[in-house]
Amino acid sequence: MSDHISGPRALADPIADITDVYAFPSPEHEDRLVLVMNTLPMAKPSDLFSEGLLYRFRLRPLEPPAGSRSWQFVHAEQEYVFDCVFSAPDPDDGLVQVGTCTALNGESVSFRVNDPEGSSAAGLRVFAGTRWDPFIMDARAALTTLATHELSFTDPGSIFLDGKNVLSVVIELDRRLIDGATLVGVVAETLTRGKLNVRIERVGRPEIKNMMLAPKEFDRVNHDLEIRDLYNMEDAFHLGDTYVGAYRARLDANLAFWDGLDGKRDWPTEEGGSHPLTDLFLDDFLVIDVTKPYLEHGSFLEIELAARSGHPHQTCGGRALNDDVMDTIFTQLVNAGLGPTIRDGVDSATRSATTTFPYLASPNPHPPEPPEHH
Predict the structure, then answer these.
(1) N or C terminus of the chain: which is more exposed, having fewer CB within 10 Å?
(2) CB contact at 8 A, 137 and 98
């Protein structure tokens, strides 16, 4: 389920669990960029944000890959950070919670949680509150595929616990706040709040952890290692040397599994047995061209795939709320885009996102009950 419950720590403390991240040019204002971080799987309509967490977006300017057949974008050391923090709910104000979003330049805007208009100041407009979870995927069929070693998608498929909610942070920012950068890498994080900020979760692209890092059985190097909590603590722009070999071994093994599901190899292994997609997914951030117009469908991974083929990209890239990105991912995993589209049978959310701020659909007042964990 995208990044829902992406490791033991997320299961134990779901308030810090990032479920999805999106980045797209504003459909309303061509000079603005929209960032979305969804958290807390199975949020109740009354749930609020944690005053003990820092909700952070990090953006870095990117340079296109230097070599041919490469998709390793070179990121600058310059970084643009947008931090959101939340107060304890005020009992004298109907338990309303107030948030504050601060840009790297010190400009900030305060807002009331669940106010659909949000608040605006200094080139920022911010909303935070409960929203309908927009993730599009037949998660049960994907897990069955992993368990049976056979593609198990059906048409139609179904969204697991459709109608569940999440806690969303939506930032719409003026592009001047990123100093005219055009190609940008985006990652979202939750961290402990205080003098020492410990990274709890970080998310760039969907399904890296649950579909590509979680399965252990194919990894002959680290077959007993639950690797996702270690991966979550890493800096997406600077993986440490200590565990990068373990991440590579796990991705090489699991990506080879996905590639073989149609009975043929569409991604020939590279020198040393590395899977060609491993480098792409280790650079775990969304890649977006903020100068291109908003596109509802078909932009996800387009910039990366164009770089790999040696062609200029045509779209904004990033990830839009209504884009069925999992079909794109499964197709690349299974047949490298050389065969038919691998569909999971789910093409849209039951409630689509809109083209007006705050973009995500209003929350379900009666969401389904989460399953019990034993």
Answers:
(1) C
(2) no
Distance (Å, rounded) from C-alpha 343 to C-alpha 341?
6
- The amino acid at 202: R
d(CA 209, CA 295): 26
Q: Model-level pTM?
A: 0.96
Domain count, the chain: 1
Report the C-alpha gap between 38 and 47 in whole angstroms: 13
Give Cβ neighbours of residue 12 (< 8 Å, ≥ 6 apart).
Answer: none
Residue 374 has pLDDT above 50, yes or no: no
Residue 349 domain-assigned?
no
AA letter at 157? G
Residue 36: other Cβ atoms inside 10 A: 27
Three-state secondary structure call for residue 325: helix
Residue in 295, 230, 236, 281 with CA at minimum distance from that of residue 81: 236
Which range marks the domain in which residue 247 is found? 8-335
Q: What is the pLDDT of residues 359-373, one digit of tens each?
A: 999 999 999 987 765
